[in-house]
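INFO  loader      accepted 1 record
INFO  loader      residues=250
INFO  predictor   begin
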Amino acid sequence: MNKLKNKVVVITGGNSGIGFGIAEAFKNEGAAGVIVGRNQKTLDSSVAQLGDDFIAINADVTNVADLEKIFAVTSEKFGKIDVIVANAGGGIVGTVENIGETDYDKTMDLNLKSVYFTVHKALPYMNDGGSIILIGSNAAHRAYPSFTLYGAAKAAVIYLAKGFSSDLLGRRIRANVITPGTTDTPAFEKFVPAEQIEGLKTHFAGEMPIGRIGQPSDIGKTAVFLASDDSSFMLGAELLVDGGMTYLAK
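INFO  predictor   done
INFO  writer      dumping tokens
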């Protein structure tokens, strides 16, 4: 359980859901580092579970000055960074008929601009030969109702893994993207009342070719692979961790 021993990691949105699943998987493989989020309560509870090798930083990834602070603090405490996971994101549900400029800007700032500048600000603090892991969505491949803008942002994120890898060949920094499908996270609470959540999860499980929705640990295991030397021959790649939704769902 030491694939990431002595690796320093930063995980945005690491205080819940997929991000915390990645943080737990990294911890179990010997990594140390930082989780980033905006909710102090969940930051405190999550970092307590991760133990002494992790710290939490309350920051807004859409604020470039906050991003600079994240990597400066991480480097000061842990030294050069080996792995960046740009996980923070979220969607405003709506169609092209009802999403206006304000919601457009919020969605693109969180899901695309923040990813670009997370990497941009991290690079001076990264070791050569490091790994950048981006988080996509199978909404980039399937036109789900009311996820047009979110899916478009995630499609751009999938491209960024290719572009970043090309840009960083000279430093041997690899960028790859994990594309989840429906995953069991607190995001369900944003869409339906609490008493309807389990029913909605059951519905989505019935739609998944594999017969269940994803767990954060599913994404965490994949992130360990991309962060470790096991994936040293992979760059610019997309790994679909979506229970078959992209290619097999009807």
